[in-house]
Amino acid sequence: MNINFNNYLTEQNLSNYLQYIFPNSNWIHNKCFLNYKFRPDYVEYSLKIILEFDGPTHYTNPKIILNDYKK
After folding, report:
1. Is residue 34 a contact partner of residue 19, using CB atoms and an 8 Å limit?
2. pTM of the model
3. In whole angstroms, how far apart are CA 28 and each of 17, 19, 32, 59, 63?
4. 50 phi and psi, to 5 degrees?
5. Which residues contact 18 (CB under 8 A, 6 or more apart)?
6. Residues of 8-30 as b/e, b for ≥16 C-beta within 10 angstroms?
7. What are the Cα distances from residue 31, in Å, to 15, 24, 28?
């Protein structure tokens, strides 16, 4: 895998970074987590990691900010 570390971090780039940093991992993207109603951006059960990626709209759109706060 060829990763250009000079790119801006986007959700797609994050996926590439995660595979690079944790090469034997199985990241699940944007799926419901157990019995919760929200979908984290990335989950890796064996590593016990949940990642949520917040892009620019998460800091500028009041509705999204409120939903993130509730999560």
Report:
1. no
2. 0.64
3. 14, 11, 10, 25, 26
4. -120, 130
5. 25, 27, 42, 44, 51
6. eeeeeebbeebeeeeeeeebeee
7. 14, 20, 7
Instruction: Indicate the pLDDT class of residue 3, thresholds 50, 70 and 90.
Output: low
* C-alpha span between 39 and 31 (Å, rounded): 5
Nearest CA-CA partner of 44 in 14, 2, 69: 14
Strands (E), 1-71: 28-29, 42-44, 49-51
Instruction: State the DSSP code for 25.
Output: -
Fill in the amino acid letter for 20: Y
pLDDT in tens, 8-66: 777 778 888 899 999 999 998 888 766 667 778 898 989 999 888 877 777 788 888 88
pLDDT of residue 24: 93
